[in-house]
Amino acid sequence: MTPDDPPTPAPTPPAPTPPAPAPPAPTPPAPAPPAPASAPAPAPPAPASAPAPAAPAPAAPEPGLARGLVLGDDVQIGRGVEWGAHVVVHRGVTIGDGVVFGSHVVVHPGTVLGEGCVIEDHAVLGKRPRLARGSSAVGEVGRLELGASVTVCAGAVVFAGARVADGSIIGDQSHVRERSRVGPGSVIGRGSAVDNDVGVGARVRL
After folding, report:
1. pTM above the 0.70 mark?
2. 124 belongs to a structural domain
3. DSSP per residue over the chain, as a string?
4. Order of strands, edge to edge, in the sheet holding 157-159?
5. Tens of pLDDT along 114-169?
6. Of 100, 127, 159, 164, which is most buried, counting CB atoms within 10 Å of its CB?
7. CATH number of the domain within which 167 lies
8. Has residue 53 been placed in a domain?
9. Number of domains in the chain
10. Distance of CA 18 to CAs 13, 22, 25, Å?
11. Domain coverage including residue 94
12. Residues with Cβ < 8 Å from 198, sequence gap 6 or more?
């Protein structure tokens, strides 16, 4: 290079290399979806409550005994007796074979019914008399005795102490008072009254 030559320009320094871009910040992971709420476990079924015990069924009546029959102590009952509903038989009564009762009959203590008697509805047998205040009647009247095959019709009252012989009929709503006597085969008509201490002979119609 001569003095007349222009000076050689100095080489241009290379442009600085721009710094590499910073790597992008890592994306935070997406939050996990919430766990589905688990459905509550079904409650165990309540134990079936034991059924309430059923009320005991009423005892079946004995064969041949009707509804509402009331029997007192020491009642003697023959064979083949037929009972209506709601018959009341008090203590110490004797009932012969084949006696037939209607409904709502009352037989008072100690009465004796011979075999084959028929006692119709609402009859009262062996009733003790109820004395008025100041009555002169005193003492026990005894028991009522009905012979065989006597019929006491509906609503009749035969008092204690009376004696009604075999085959007699005591009509509807009639009264046979204490200590009276009705002979065999007699008929005391409907609504009649045989007073106390009166005797009726055999086969009489009143």
Report:
1. no
2. yes
3. --TTSPPPPPPPPPPPPPPPPPPPPPPPPPPPPPPPPPPPPPPPPPPPPPPPPPPPPPPPPPTTPPTT-EE-TT-EE-TT-B--TT-EE-TT-EE-TT-EE-SS-EE-TT-EE-TT-EE-TT-EEEEPP-PPTT----S-----EE-TT-EE-TT-EEETT-EE-TT-EE-TT-EE-TT-EE-TT-EE-TT-EE-TT-EE-TT-B-
4. 70-71, 88-89, 106-107, 124-127, 157-159, 175-176, 193-194
5. 999 999 999 999 999 987 776 665 667 899 999 999 999 999 999 999 999 999 99
6. 164
7. 2.160.10.10
8. no
9. 1
10. 15, 12, 20
11. 66-129+141-206
12. 177, 180, 181
Sort 200 into a burial class: Cβ within 10 Å, 0-12 / 13-18 / 19+. Answer: buried
> 174: how many CB neighbours lie within 10 A of its CB?
22
How far is it, in rounded angstroms, from Cα 20 to Cα 33?
Answer: 37
Please indicate, yes or no, if residue 80 is contained in any of the structural domains.
yes
Q: Which residue has the tokens 């026990």?
A: 140
pLDDT tens sequence across 39-82: 556 666 665 666 666 655 444 445 456 899 999 999 999 999 99
Which of these, 134, 103, 100, 135, lies nearest to 118 by C-alpha position?
100
Give the residue from 58, 68, 72, 75 showing the smallest Cα distance to 113.
Answer: 75
Q: Is residue 32 part of a domain?
A: no
